[in-house]
Amino acid sequence: xxxxxxxxxxxxxxxxxxxxxxxxxxxxxxxxxxxxxxxxxxxxxxxxxxxxxxxxxxxxxxxxxxxxxxxxxxxxxxxxxxxxxxxxxxxxxxxxxxxxxxxxxxxxxxxxxxxxxxxxxxxxx
Length: 125
Hints:
Largest sheet: 2 strands, antiparallel
Shape: elongated
GO molecular function, one term: sequence-specific DNA binding
Protein name: Transposase
Organism: Caenispirillum bisanense
Order of helices and strands: EEHHHEEH
Number of strands: 4
Number of helices: 4
Distance between the termini: 37 Å
Oligomer: single chain
């Protein structure tokens, strides 16, 4: 925020292209909004505001994929009551089926932040 010659506050105006560039940088895997904001000399709260507005506008403008519902909603979950055989080793994998034919399987020792990055990338496709 700058001050004019009369001492009044004057807010900086950011070009839309630069806002999109900054928001895009925050969407990179492993990116921190605070770090990106510091790099561009912008308040992190301002970046969050731009990000929310631009992502909402993008989701409204983008046509829904043919396999996805037009409106966000609940997705069905199927639970099976399989009793593992004591003679077989216990399978501690989780399988996640996503739209677009993607399937992600993770074992007991998965790294949560890495899985979140993978799911974020697949969600954007």
